[in-house]
């Protein structure tokens, strides 16, 4: 380069600087997430981008993809180049381990088994609760329209199914009776949307059904969008804890050279700022101080986990959601 004319050397140097600046400006992450986190990451992303810029001097773009959790996981396995995944059930991350995209020890890469928040399943009913819906038993009665997303494609729907199953097992102590109970509930489901947000649209905008069974954070979203008047929220006597796991997609992050940014992005979810956003968006934060700050938004509810009550996700997947499993039998014969 020293043998080149001064003007040429300056041009080359300027070109290198511009290329470096462009590389920084073009740095990006793709977060492939589940259906009802759109509003959450609309607030998380700019907050993290500003923090990253202040610390690293790098302009970062974060893109989002949303859909039913299981469908999203399948899309990553099929080639959607996610740098990180933020799902609502562990099996959708585990499936990426088996396909070589995520490390086997993903649960130990971040606190709380790599789940920065939890939520639970609640009932959203028409204002005044005209059908008098109080608990899971009411959802099995003839003439009640129950809106849930498809458990085969949506973690939201899967948690609804398992919450009903766990309630029935707790009440009857009998899995055969639980099968009959859940079958009766799904007989009242007029349409199975692919994800939680589709189910919300069916209930809130299209006016179908008497009750929407969904994650607690959807209740907060509906209030923001439609106001307090059209709907009430009912907390059942027993529900399920839904922990939302996150992971770096190693295969893609290493290919893109984004591992450091991806790790920092997910760590931000546990930061006080990230936890505060999570709570404001209606999810239950892990940070105890933040939870206390927003405690009025999170009524006490008795919950169980898949691991504690149902034998863990591996058993649940094989027993209920594999092809020909209990869920298929219930839906085919409903």
Element order: H for helix, E for strand:
HEHEHEHHEEHHEHEHEEEHHHEHEHHH
Number of strands: 12
Mean pLDDT rating: 90
| CATH C-level name of the largest domain | Alpha Beta
Strand content: 15-25%
Structural class: alpha/beta
**Low-pLDDT ranges:** 6-25
The helix content is: 40-55%
Give the overall shape, derived from the CA principal axes.
globular
Number of spatially distinct domains: 2
Distance from N terminus to C terminus (CA atoms, Å) equals 76 Å
Largest sheet: 8 strands, mixed
Which topology of the largest domain does CATH recognise? D-Maltodextrin-Binding Protein, domain 2
Using the CA coordinates, give the radius of gyration. Answer: 23 Å
What is the correct CATH architecture of the largest domain?
A: 3-Layer(aba) Sandwich
Describe this structure in words.
By secondary structure, the protein is an alpha/beta fold. It folds into 2 domains: 6-116 and 244-270, Periplasmic binding protein-like II (D-Maltodextrin-Binding Protein, domain 2); 119-242 and 302-332, D-Maltodextrin-Binding Protein, domain 2 (3-Layer(aba) Sandwich). The protein has 16 helices and 12 strands. The protein has helices at 6-25, 38-56, 69-77, 90-98, 111-114, 155-172, 175-187, 196-204, 216-226, 250-256, 259-268, 272-280, 288-293, 306-309, 313-321, 326-332; strands at residues 28-34, 61-67, 84-86, 117-126, 146-149, 192-193, 211-215, 231-234, 239-243, 246-248, 284-285, 303-304. Strands 4, 5, 6, 7, 8, 9, 11 and 12 form an 8-stranded mixed sheet that branches. A 4-stranded mixed sheet has the order 2-1-3-10. Strand 1 (28-34), helix 2 (38-56) and strand 2 (61-67) form a beta-alpha-beta unit. The longest helix is centred in the first third of the chain and has 20 residues, at 6-25. The protein is globular.
